[in-house]
Amino acid sequence: MGHNVLSLSDRDIINRSKSLTDIYGTVTLNKKIIDIFKTFKPNIIVLGHADGVSKETLLEIKKLDKNIKLTQWFLDPVTKYGPDYLKNKNRVLHKSKIVDATFVTTHPKAINFKIKNSHFLPNPCDESLEVLKNYNQKCNKDVFFGMSHGVHRGTLKKGKFDKRELFINKLIRNCEDVKFDIYGMNEIQPVWGSKFIKTIANSKMGLNLSRGEAVKYYSSDRIVQLIGNGLLTFIDKKTKLNDFISTKEAVFYNNMDDLIKKIKIFKKNDKKRIRIARAGRNMYHKYFNSTLVANYIIDRTLGIKSKYYWEK
Q1: 46 exposure class (CB count in 10 Å sphere: 0-12, 13-18, 19+)
Q2: Which own/partner pairs from 83-90 qualify as long-range (CB within 8 Å, at least 24 positions apart)?
Q3: Is 270 exposed, middle or buried (0-12, 13-18, 19+ CB in 10 A)?
Q4: CA-CA distances (angstroms) from residue 134 to 72, 210, 219, 231?
Q5: Could you tell me if 45 and 71 are in contact, meaning their C-beta atoms sit under 8 angstroms apart?
Q6: What band does 129 get if pLDDT is binned at 50, 70 and 90?
Q7: Which residue ranges make up each domain of the chain?
Q8: In whole angstroms, what is the distance from residue 296 CA to residue 312 CA?
Q9: Sign of the Cα pseudo-torsion (19, 22, 23, 26, in order)
Q10: Would you list the DSSP string of 114-140?
Q11: Which of 34, 230, 260, 265 has its CA 20 to 30 A from that of 172?
């Protein structure tokens, strides 16, 4: 709040700018960034997965304004046993020595390489996006889980396999009386956008299961879509998210057997399910909303001392 923000989509500019003289569109992008910088004169530049922005452009900006602060956030997993490890490692490190701070959705101490001035970044929620309160609704499904073969891939890709499919199928086999609503596997296409919101509105509970091995604090933005919309959310205890999300706000499981047991318990106990789901949504919107997370990025980038809920 109170900040003048100019947003720029590097991917849109790249896609529109490809030509014979600029095959990848990045020449146009980087020139545009410098031109905008000279006109807008920002105090902070925040980069999010902006792979097309060159280090040379950032160094040029630093020459133009020695007081400029640069920061980047990276949402994908960056742990050794996560998906696309080497690719994600190289991406997050590419500008890490130039920017003043880096924010990752994994606890920095759980990453097996050093990132200069790195901080944990929780997935933020927003009242304009997480609009549902499923605990108030009569849902006809028990447990929702959705995935895809890539964020930018709208449909299933032939021959593509995700290890989570084995986990989910075993879970379904052992919960015969539970009504699952599963997307992105077993030949059921993933759901996106408004269809996604309409779909999860039908489920009482949701499973927060990310790709790769569970690691400290990492989760995809799935956690926001579930807990932020009032679904009772099941979370792997190995993520250690119970450091700041209590058992009064979500359900943590130790292993497959424990998850099966707890799903069956909460299927039969609507009163307890509703109480935890409501508390979870209220907590997440209060302490992990987009305004607070944005302020956190600014504070850490500028070196301002402050304390946030997830830094217990």
Answers
A1: buried
A2: 83/211, 83/212, 89/113
A3: exposed
A4: 34, 22, 21, 6
A5: yes
A6: very high
A7: 10-123+289-311, 134-287
A8: 14
A9: negative
A10: --TTEEE-PPPB-TTT----GGGS--S
A11: 230
pLDDT digits (tens, 9 = 90+) for 19-42: 998 999 999 999 999 999 999 999
Per-residue model confidence as pLDDT tens digits over 252-296: 999 999 999 999 999 999 999 999 999 999 999 999 999 999 999
What proportions of the chain, in percent to the nearest 5, are helix, strand and coil?
A: 40, 15, 45
Quick one: pLDDT band at residue 148, thresholds 50, 70, 90? Answer: confident
CATH code linked to domain 10-123+289-311 = 3.40.50
- How far, in Å, CA of 10 to CA of 33, rounded? 9
pLDDT score of 155 more than 90: no
User: What is the rounded CA–CA span in Å between residue 24 and residue 47?
Assistant: 19
> Is the full-model pTM beyond 0.90?
yes
Q: Is the pLDDT of residue 165 over 70?
A: yes
Q: Which residue has the higher pLDDT, 171 or 192?
A: 171
Residue type, 206: G
And the tokens for 289? Answer: 């909303």
Give residue 156's pLDDT.
Answer: 75
Please tell me the distance from the alpha carbon of residue 9 to that of residue 69, in angstroms, as a whole number: 19
Mean pLDDT for the stretch of residues 146-161: 72
Type of residue at 76:
D
Domain 10-123+289-311 shares a fold with domain 134-287: yes
Homologous superfamily, domain 134-287: Glycogen Phosphorylase B; (3.40.50.2000)
Contacts of 195 (CB under 8 A, 6+ apart): none
